Amino acid sequence: MPDFIRRSLILVAASGISVSALAQARAKRPLLFGLITPRAAEQTRKNWLPFTERLSASLQQPIGLELFADPTELVSRFAHGTVDLAWMGNLAALDAVLTGNASVFAQMVTKEGNAGYQSILVVPARSPLRTVADAIKTGKTLRFGDGDLKSTSGHAVPAYFAFQKNGVDNTEAVFRTVTHNTHQKNLTLVANEELDLATANTEELGFFTRDFPTLASKLRVVWESPVIPQSPLVWRNSLPLDLKRRVLQFVTDFGKGDDQRRILEQMNSLSGFRQSSNRQLAAVADLEMFKARRAIADDKSLSPGERTRRVDDVMRRSSRIDLILRLGVGPLR
User: What is the mean pLDDT of the chain?
Assistant: First the structure.
């Protein structure tokens, strides 16, 4: 008997759901749950599988898990309606929402009750660097580890708050080399002194400290960002309303009892989820629009007419995003 069915039978028996109901569930089209992979992919799957199995039993509908190293691919799958539920970063969630096919419905809450976290810049513990200004001043000698271009905490927030606000629009023009890595890889490379400076976030540093304490002791944080909203859960807009209600009920209720608390701890050191909406992406949208306007203003190769056209395009996009995220007006077309 396949492991998925065996586990489902155990969960169904424990929850009082009949085997005939399970048989009906298997006849339904499986829902697909997408996961970004800021850490090791198989570990992420292992951590989330108990949660999705219990969601499957609650909905009486099979759920498949698919992992995505590239957030752009996960966004594309939402655009084509082939992913039903997902966990992703705020920036990728903004892109998914702007496809018109996805919406934020819940937000992670940490064990400490926090619904936010911070981007960080880390250096080797014995590095002479103490501030962002130090890094910029000596950048031509430094190897910089940026995050994925679609990562909110790994790329977008440091690019704006750490670098643009200190006069740096293009890190590749400042540092000797720039690579794009996962949080865990950045932390590992800095600890091993294979990078001189890298992005990560406070949550990932916590996981890294828990899992690799010796390596973590070789790191030092030189910069922290303002607080970023915790990563959201997103669903496909065209899911049936009753199914959405049951998913939301399950997700926001999850965390009662020792077993569920252990699952949340393994997933992301969480205490649970709270209901959310597209409005949680507003700060990230503002950040992206600022970056777009700044890039146009600093591009000296643009003619006055082209510069005006691009600024008008950005402003129109900004207005549409504002309607979607703040006022709940229909999807961007």
Answer: 87
Q: Would you say 94 and 52 are in contact if contact means Cβ atoms under 8 Å apart?
A: no
Helix, strand, or coil (residue 316): helix
- Choose among 269, 275, 267, 270: nearest CA to 249: 275
Structural contact between residues 220 and 179, judged by C-beta atoms closer than 8 angstroms: no
Find the largest Cα–Cα distance for the chain: 69
Paired tokens of 303: 């003619």
Residue 208 and residue 234: Cα distance in Å, rounded? 26
The pLDDT of residue 299 is 85
Q: E strands of the chain, at which residues? A: 31-36, 63-68, 85-87, 102-110, 116-117, 119-124, 143-147, 177-181, 197-201, 219-224, 228-229, 232-236, 270-275
Cα–Cα distance between 90 and 172 in angstroms, integer? Answer: 24
The arrangement of strands across the sheet holding 119-124 comes to 177-181, 143-147, 197-201, 119-124, 219-224
Share of the chain above pLDDT 90, in %: 63
Q: Please report, as a single letter, which amino acid is at residue 53.
A: E
Give 63's pLDDT tier (boundaries 50, 70, 90). Answer: very high
List the structure tokens of 93: 């969630």
What does DSSP say about strands 31-36 and 63-68: parallel, antiparallel, or unpaired? Answer: parallel
